[in-house]
Design brief:
Layout (H helix, E strand, L loop, with lengths): L13 E6 L6 H12 L3 E3 H12 L5 H20 L4 E4 L7 H5 L4 E8 L2 H11 L14 H4 L2 H4 L7 E5 L6 H14 L2
Parallel strand pairs: 1-3, 1-4, 2-3, 4-5
Helix pairs in contact: 1-8, 2-3
């Protein structure tokens, strides 16, 4: 998907946080949204996959969590030197000071869908990702908890129902509208 001519955000420093529980559709939305907005995509899982490729797969769930945190911190470090980006991750409390330090407006896209949909998607992808994610070994409370369900509160919030296919152009239009309003 390409951005419409004249619809780029290059003169505006904006960071679009695509957040929600694992399996809520963050990555499915983030990549085409970044393209539609003509912003780079910084995705935690892509960074984690690259680290696994170089360093090897973590041996335990806790090692995987630690590598996930390192991946998020790498993503936020790169974002800090960027004029804007779409950030695809789950944003735990430890990320909030780093998000506040980003050099631009923050807009949060919150991916929402019923828990049964999230759980079914998560089970379906279990085992299909790089070794070291331990999807099948993670407890339900790790996947569906207050950190995943609570917005960061760091900027305007756009909730997107990701139960079915999302109209990415419409979401991008909402982001542009928020930017134009200067909220």
């Amino acid at each position: 998907m390409t951005a419409s001519p004249g619809r780029q955000l290059e003169s505006t420093s904006v960071f679009v946080l695509v957040a929600g529980p694992p399996g809520s559709g963050k990555s499915t939305l983030a990549a085409p949204l970044a393209s539609e907005l003509s912003l780079p995509l910084l995705a935690k899982d892509a960074i984690k996959d690259a680290l696994i490729e170089v360093l090897g797969a973590p041996a335990t769930v806790e090692d995987s969590r630690e590598l996930g945190r390192a991946s998020v911190m790498a993503m936020l470090t790169v974002a800090r030197t960027s004029p804007g980006a779409v950030l695809d991750s789950t944003f735990y409390p430890y990320t909030l000071p780093h998000l506040r330090a980003l050099p631009g407006q923050l807009i949060e896209i919150r991916c929402v869908c019923p828990r049964r949909v999230v759980e079914a998607r998560y089970r379906a992808r279990s085992g299909s990702r790089a070794r070291g994610y331990f999807d099948s070994e993670r407890p339900a409370e790790e996947l569906w908890n207050e950190h995943h369900l609570t917005p960061t509160g760091l900027g305007p919030l756009i909730e997107v129902d990701t139960t079915d296919q999302v109209d990415v152009a419409a979401v991008a239009a909402r982001v542009r509208s928020v930017i134009a309003e200067g909220r």
